[in-house]
């Protein structure tokens, strides 16, 4: 695994060991998704849900995000995020790690009146629909502000359109071999 663009382009990240069950976003898919985002990532507050290795959030920082909040429920994965962040000498104001389930973390972030411009959810594929639930909650609570963009990584055959509430819409769908990244916005 490596950072695909920006300030830290080509820097390697520590990946999961075999048998961990983690499925990091492939470099090529991250590169495609961030190419679509382009300059929209610059100076944003980025939320990386189901963060795994932290690769997506670190990619956002490399491409100009102001700060990232990583949310990961498993302590072993959170430790991997800490290691990867430490290799970039990130300060607490640029990278924060919350070790809680995503739904609990959203409640915590809402209680402190936090807000984000971009959110990325990459839940384990067997529970991909939890990603939709969490992203919907971000829009409903206002944690993902006006004009905010949500990304959901899911299995290639997941029925995302049929699972979205009527006020959310798919604006882009990047399909890979086994996975896809769906970009979601609130309808105007």
Intertermini distance: 37 Å
- Main β-sheet, in a few words? 7 strands, mixed
Instruction: Find the count of extended strands (DSSP E, 2+ residues).
Output: 7
**Lateral strand order in the biggest sheet:** 3-2-1-4-5-7-6
Structural class: alpha/beta
Q: Tell me the strand percentage band.
A: 25-35%
**Bulk shape:** globular
Summed over residues and divided by their number, the pLDDT gives a mean of: 93
Q: Considering DSSP H and I runs of 4 or more, what fraction of the residues is helical?
A: 25-40%
Query: Which residues sit in consecutive blocks of at least 5 with pLDDT less than 50?
Result: none
Overview of this structure, please?
With 188 residues, the chain is an alpha/beta fold. Helix content is 29%, strand content 26%. It contains five helices and seven strands; from the N terminus they run αβαβαβαβαβββ. Strand 6 (168-175) and strand 7 (179-186) form a beta hairpin. Helix 4 packs parallel to helix 5 (129-141). The longest helix is centred in the last third of the chain and has 13 residues, at 129-141. It is globular. The model has no long low-confidence stretch (mean pLDDT 93).
What is the element layout, followed by pairings?
Elements: H1 27-37, E1 45-49, H2 55-62, E2 67-71, H3 75-86, E3 95-98, H4 102-111, E4 116-121, H5 129-141, E5 144-155, E6 168-175, E7 179-186
Parallel strand pairs: 1-2, 1-4, 2-3, 4-5
Antiparallel strand pairs: 5-7, 6-7
Quick tags:
alpha/beta, seven-stranded mixed β-sheet, 7 strands, 188 residues
């Amino acid at each position: 695994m490596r950072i695909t663009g920006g300030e830290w382009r080509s820097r390697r990240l520590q990946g999961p060991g075999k048998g961990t069950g983690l499925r990091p976003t492939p470099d090529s898919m991250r590169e495609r998704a961030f190419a679509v985002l382009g300059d929209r990532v610059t100076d944003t507050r980025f939320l990386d849900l189901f963060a795994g290795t932290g690769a997506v959030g670190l990619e956002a920082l490399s491409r100009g995000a102001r700060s990232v909040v990583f949310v990961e429920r498993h302590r072993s994965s959170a430790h991997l995020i800490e290691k990867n962040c430490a290799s970039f000498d990130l300060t607490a104001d640029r990278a924060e790690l919350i070790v809680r389930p995503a739904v609990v973390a959203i409640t915590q972030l809402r209680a402190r009146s936090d807000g984000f411009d971009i959110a990325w959810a990459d839940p384990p594929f067997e529970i991909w629909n939890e990603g939709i639930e969490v992203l919907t909650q971000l829009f409903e609570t206002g944690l993902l502000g006006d004009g905010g963009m949500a990304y959901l990584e899911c299995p290639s055959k997941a029925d995302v359109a049929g699972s979205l509430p009527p006020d959310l819409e798919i604006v882009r769908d990047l399909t890979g071999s086994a996975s896809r990244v769906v970009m979601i916005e609130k309808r105007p």
